[in-house]
Amino acid sequence: MTYEEFADTRLAPLLRYAVMLTGDPHQAQDLVQETMVRVQLNWRRVARADSPERYVRRMLTNQYVDWKRGSWMRRVLLRGEPDESVPAYADHAQSAVDRDQIWSWLSRLPRRQRATLVLRYYEDLPDAEIAEILGCAVGTVRSSISRALATLRAEYVEVRS
Amino acid sequence: MIEDDLRAAFARHEPLTPPTGPLRAAIDRLVARRRQRRRRWQTGGAALALLGVLGIGVPLLTPERAGPPPTADLLGGSSRPAPTGALNILLLGLDGEGPEASRSDALLLVHIPADRGRPYLVSLPRDLGVPIPGHGTDKLNAAFPFGAGFSRPQAAKGYELTRRTVTELTGVRVDAGVVLTYSTVRTLTDTMGGVPVCLPEQVRSVHTKRVFPSGCQRLGGAAAVDLLRQRYGLPNGGQDRDRNARLFAAGLLRQAADQGVLTDPVRLARLLAAVGPDLVVSPDRAAALDLLRLVPALRSVEPVGLGLPVVESEGPAWYLRLDPQRAPEFLTALREDRLDDWTARHPKRVDAVR
After folding, report:
1. CA distance to partner chain A, nearest, from residue B259 (Å)
2. pTM for the full predicted model
3. CATH of the domain at A158
């Protein structure tokens, strides 16, 4: 497989994945861009992996988890104008609030925990594969998912009560 | 339920995903820029080789090996001072296209005096019997394959063992080294538009049907490699071949100086880019900057060619050995950077370059 073939089919799903990780299209673009530059420069090594797709997803996840806050937080915070790329929802008010709430709660989770949630509930990967991507034990994956879910549940209870 | 809400939230936010077209273009642009930077850096490595060939020195293995950051501009200033003191660069010409099963059939020690006067090209005969660290006594050219290993040869390791062997033999510290293959020499020669060589006698190739007449001629890449391989049929065999290698290196230097390549960074970079990443430089490529900054300091690019004084061994195994009368004096002069004295007293041992 060439880099071009890889990018043809995998760039869009990777970008979607990055949106779920970061919750922000601009950060997602930055994250994917940084990762894919390294992928292209080291393509021979990437292509040698059993599954280049999984290898790159792992690179991108690590990049996200290790990303230095300063580098992109600053950029995002300085970007003051409202984001036109965020679609407006036609739902009725209360539901829209709920929905935005769970999305914003996600952003308060530690990045590793958010990554596990995205990998399990968006990418639908088995725990073993999540563990491989994050470079940890399956047990660690399960405990960090349950911890993340517990945090979200606690928020729910707070809002509903 | 929270799991379902999560799935729904993710799915709902999918439309946030931006189009991939502009992103892909941005990635390609960034990659091109970084490759260019990398290439420029490799070019720097090749600069080391070329200038090594040309007899221009490099400062390396200074106590702190930290070079300028890799993003530093090749032509820009660096905080490290230009090297001072005498420098010795070891050039290995491999007998082949790569490290596989190769011996280093041409060993040339380039000595740059501290006063930056004429550089010296000192041939080390490949058939010289020497102690090779960890391998007993063998021919000098065996150090390369012993170091490189046989199953998956590594040129850098072959160079390293050769360097240690040469250091123990001569007592001279080797500051930098370059490993050249046939293809590197070919490319370098062709890119320079050929190299003028003046031969004292006719050489007839046993590999091709080429005949190199005595006198001056311009050699292309293929012819240059052919000439550098010839030793059968020469009056003094391997030693005549070493002399031809010195004449070639001197011609290459003259050619580069005549074309102004050495002082024109753009042309130098273009030339070196053509040689490519094929060659091995030691200790690392980061030294190239210092090297280039040495060029203006040289007072002369007309090298002095000579051979390490050796004699036929009386023993078996076809080894040469150091000339017990002349070699100690010569090596002392080399170590103490007094080769100008030595060559003045032994004019017959110096090549007639033109």
Report:
1. 35
2. 0.54
3. 1.10.10.10
